[in-house]
Design a protein that fits this description.
It is a single chain. The protein has nine helices and six strands; from the N terminus they run βααβαβββααβαααα. It is an alpha/beta fold. The chain has a four-stranded parallel beta sheet with strand order 2-1-3-6, sandwiched between helices. A two-stranded antiparallel ribbon has the order 4-5. It starts with a strand and ends in a 5-residue tail after the last helix.
Length: about 210
């Protein structure tokens, strides 16, 4: 079995002393499979969509660990960088002044409801793309992306109904940070070896539940 994992810093293994202890590699050892881990610190969900579309055809199982719903990817002639609208921090801005202007604008004028809708659309895009190519897949969240207020919106409710929750671990219920709540964390809040082992075990058991391994 060849597995592709995409995600943010929690999939990359940020703050681990040995990156090989990140949950994708722990899962790889449990399954005795080939692995490509495209987890990347501070990556946005649009970047994950791009990675899946570009690489999914080479793998038997694709695991997408979505980041915070508001993270999106921007690109200009100097390269690609991520921003988290509403966050006070600045990510990958370089020395180009207008990037700061863009970040400040989005931080002050973004619509959370719009960004949440885009997050759901990204999920559905990948869901249908992978299903069309007859690939096995699983999805999960790094953070809690479940917001009751958003679900009252008619458009958002319609999108939520289209998500195939059979292949979404913890859909609208829990996520990686919930599973690892009691484990030790690094200075920047990332769960460490024990947490990664718990995430890998959760995914492994879900794969067994689906009957994809004996």
């Amino acid at each position: 079995m060849r597995i592709l994992t995409v995600g943010d810093s929690f999939t990359y293994g940020d703050e681990l002393a040995d990156i090989q202890q990140a949950w994708p590699y722990v899962l790889q050892n449990k399954l005795s499979c080939e692995l490509t881990n495209l987890g990347k610190p501070s990556t946005g969900n649009t970047s994950m969509v791009r990675n899946v579309v570009e690489h999914a055809s080479n793998y038997d199982l694709i695991i997408v660990a979505w980041s915070h719903y508001a993270r999106m990817e921007f690109a200009d002639r100097f390269g690609i960088y991520d921003t988290w609208p509403g966050h006070r921090g600045v990510m990958f801005t370089g020395n180009v002044g207008y990037r700061m202007e863009l970040l400040n604008y989005i931080n002050h004028h973004h619509s959370d409801k719009y960004l949440y809708r885009q997050y759901l659309i990204n999920i559905l895009l990948i869901q249908h793309f992978i299903q069309h190519h007859n690939k096995k897949y699983l999805m999960l969240d790094s953070f809690g992306n479940n917001f009751d207020d958003f679900r009252l919106d008619t458009q958002i409710a319609h999108l939520i109904k289209q998500v195939d929750k059979r292949y979404y671990i913890g859909w609208l219920k829990d996520n990686m940070t919930d599973w690892t709540y009691t484990t030790s964390k690094g200075p920047h809040g990332h769960f460490l070896e024990e947490g990664h082992a718990k995430v890998a075990e959760k995914i492994y058991e879900y794969i067994r539940h689906l009957g994809w391994i004996s």
